[in-house]
Amino acid sequence: MEHVVLKFGGSICGQLPDSFFADVVHLQQQEKWRPLIVHGGGPMISSLSDKLGLETQFVNGLRVTTDDMLDVVEMVLSGLVNKQVVRRLLKFGGLGWGLSGIDGASIIAKIKDEQLGFVGEVVDVNPATFQLLHEQGYIPVLSPLGVDAQGQRYNINGDTVAGAVASKFQARLIMISDIPGIYADADRQQLLDKVTRQDVLEMIDQGIISGGMIPKVQAALYALEHGAPEVTIVNGLHEHILQEISEGHAVGTKIVLEEEYSHVVQS
Ligand SMILES: Nc1ncnc2c1ncn2[C@@H]1O[C@H](COP(=O)(O)OP(=O)(O)O)[C@@H](O)[C@H]1O
Ligand SMILES: CC(=O)N[C@@H](CCC(=O)OP(=O)(O)O)C(=O)O
């Protein structure tokens, strides 16, 4: 059975159609996929921190995280959002098991950059808890927090965690967002069906890839460089998107390291 990491962000979380969760459950029950869900929740964190009067600041798509902000991040991601995802799986007979990277020390992290506060970078992924859950028929639902040996918690971008988990399991990574893929221009007119590492780096330089798309493509490249066989960015609003992907249809934007050339040998 193929390991598949599914990552969706806060911008789409509440709008994902029922068919998305039904597909996750069916693909697991048909023993086609061993799904592992990683979710975000950025907009929900911003909304609660606004209500609490905490200021939000992003640097290159990453939230500057004080100790107070960590409380909000953990409450929103590991509480509200995580349990909502577990409940939506249950509706279709799927046994979701919510955990954060703190549980079972699944995501070991360290500080990424002093200026960002308690934002983590992944040091290691401990696969034991995920394996245990899979063996017992559960679908792991992971919120992107990490922990270090001193018990310090970290706020990690959801895409970054998904990229690290996909590389640990050598799993296909599907990034589900509110756009149909990567656009080639700032006006968002031309959608790309495939981008290489070189394209991505140039597009970040030119400002065509910006904001939350930056950690997404960086995580995609990290996963590919560390053994994930395939990474795609797709639109979660599309009904039965996962069923389509599992049947081999090309949807969204595929990210590859190098252009693949086919060599024709003439005799
Ligand atoms: N070149 C690009 N193509 C597509 N989306 C882009 C691009 N550059 C920036 N974006 C923005 O990135 C967003 C996706 O990142 P983000 O909001 O963090 O997603 P999620 O919450 O799903 O992780 C899109 O909604 C879009 O506004
Ligand atoms: C460090 C950092 O920025 N962490 C993210 C974690 C949530 C997330 O990644 O949510 P999306 O997938 O919806 O963007 C944040 O605080 O917003």
Automatic annotation (TrEMBL):
Assign the protein's first listed, main location to one coarse class.
cytoplasm
Site feature (Transition state stabilizer) residues: K7, K216
Q: What subcellular locations does the record give?
A: Cytoplasm
**Keyword ATP-binding included in the entry's annotation:** yes
The record's keywords, sorted A to Z, are:
Amino-acid biosynthesis, Arginine biosynthesis, ATP-binding, Cytoplasm, Kinase, Nucleotide-binding, Transferase
What is this enzyme's catalytic activity, as reactions?
Answer: N-acetyl-L-glutamate + ATP = N-acetyl-L-glutamyl 5-phosphate + ADP
**Annotated pathway, please?**
Amino-acid biosynthesis; L-arginine biosynthesis; N(2)-acetyl-L-ornithine from L-glutamate: step 2/4
Q: Which residues bind substrate?
A: G41, G42, R63, N155
One example GO MF annotation: acetylglutamate kinase activity
Membership in a protein family: Belongs to the acetylglutamate kinase family. ArgB subfamily.
Q: What does this protein do?
A: Catalyzes the ATP-dependent phosphorylation of N-acetyl-L-glutamate.
The protein's name in its UniProt record:
Acetylglutamate kinase
Q: Which organism is it from?
A: Caldalkalibacillus horti
Question: Which classification does the entry list for the species?
Answer: Bacteria, Bacillati, Bacillota, Bacilli, Bacillales
